Amino acid sequence: MKQTIFSIQDLKKYYLVKLGLFKKAYIKAVDDVNFLIREGEAYCIVGESGSGKTTVTKMLLGLELPTEGKIEFLGKDLSKLLSDARSAKDFRKNVQAVFQDPFSSLNPRKTVKDILEKPFKVHNEKIEMETTERLLEEVGLIPPKEFLKRYSHQLSGGQRQRVCIARALALKPKVVILDEPTAALDVTIKAQILNLLIDLKEKYNLTYIIISHELPLLKSIADKISVMYAGKIVEEGAAERIFNNPKHPYTLGLLESIPPPDPKSAKTKTLPTLEGEPPSPVNPPKGCRFHPRCPYKFDLCDKIEPEKVEIYSEHYVSCHLFNRK
Ligand code: SF4
After folding, report:
1. Does residue 325 lie within any of the structural domains?
2. Is the terminal CB of the chain with fewer CB neighbours within 10 Å at N or C?
3. Is 320 near ligand 1, meaning CB less than 6 Å away?
């Protein structure tokens, strides 16, 4: 069995918000979430906006503290790791992030060379010219000497994201958290960046945590998938199973709302899509949170919250359809 990198146990994140002059309520952004991420996996967390996936990412990066529950990194409590300056620095070195918008992720007043040298300076590590050049070669920015001199406005969107990936790899991390890494890019560039990420993962045995709202896009890269809806994981399992045999009605909806690749068929075919909007995180629906949008709902669904059921080895679904006695 591969080493567990992150263990997430009963994780909750609630935010207190004011509703008018005297009324307060909690936004339940993440509500009792459990999962494991193992070494070398590309673990993908998928859902619409408001599903809680970005809040989970912030907690994994140590940018937000859980309201309840625990995150362990390599068997150690993350909140304790972060309370000690030395172990916090080690954690930051080992867990790097690449964000959605490469333009705002790069300082416009710095050259690519400055940007790539910064992680080494922050961690007091030796920098050599060959190191920054090698990093650019790794992400396909060739000739590297030419790119080192440029500022972010002199790069295309895809090139900027390649610089962000090179910066994330600079200190040889164990884990890279990729928050919608291709969302701001054109379709052809998306595919190039995904292929690059696949190659780098193989080469350096990286563990990826990928956050995305585009489930189909993850087919080529994902090893495991967690589908989140309204703060909960509704389905989790091996990517191959989720793509070939999805079980939860919400996962089916996410897969069915894909436009077909052939533009001619797009003109002739009516596409099924997910109807309705995700619920308010302040007051989520009783019972199954997906029931107002679910085409398969029945009498139990708006009354009792479904339990998580293991339907195959390490394939979990929270839906009453799979828990009927
Ligand atoms: Fe649909 Fe009911 Fe399953 Fe929820 S529990 S996904 S409403 S069938």
Report:
1. no
2. C
3. yes
Name the residue among 67, 65, 66, 87 with its Cα closest to residue 76: 87
- How far is residue 182's CA from residue 210's CA, in Å, rounded to a whole number? 10
Estimate the crossing angle of helix 129-138 against helix 157-169, to 10 degrees.
120
User: Is 161 a member of any domain?
Assistant: yes
| C-alpha 316 – ligand 1 centre gap (Å) | 14
| Cα-based distances in Å from 221 to 13, 59, 187, 235, 236 | 28, 23, 16, 18, 16
* Residue entry with tokens 């790097």: 96
Q: How many CA atoms lie within 13 A of 169 on its CB side?
A: 26
CA–CA separation, 265 and 285 (whole Å) = 37
Residue 324 lies inside a defined structural domain of this protein: no
Q: Give me the domain span that covers residue 16.
A: 4-318
- CB burial of residue 171 (10 Å; 0-12, 13-18, 19+): middle
How many domains does the chain divide into?
Answer: 1
Pocket test residue of 228, 234, 298, 301 for ligand 1, highest count of atoms within 8 A of CB? 301
30-71 pLDDT, tens digit per residue, is 999 999 999 999 999 999 988 999 999 999 999 999 999 999
Tens-place pLDDT, residues 73-120 = 999 999 999 999 999 999 999 999 999 887 788 999 999 999 999 999
pLDDT over threshold 70, residue 262: no
Residue 139 lies in a domain: yes
Report the residue among 296, 309, 317 best suited for mutation to probe ligand 1: largest number of ligand atoms under 8 A from its CB. 296
CATH number at residue 135: 3.40.50.300
Which atom belonging to ligand 1 lies closest to the Cα atom of 250? 6
Instruction: Please state the atom number of ligand 1 nearest to the C-alpha of residue 320.
Output: 5
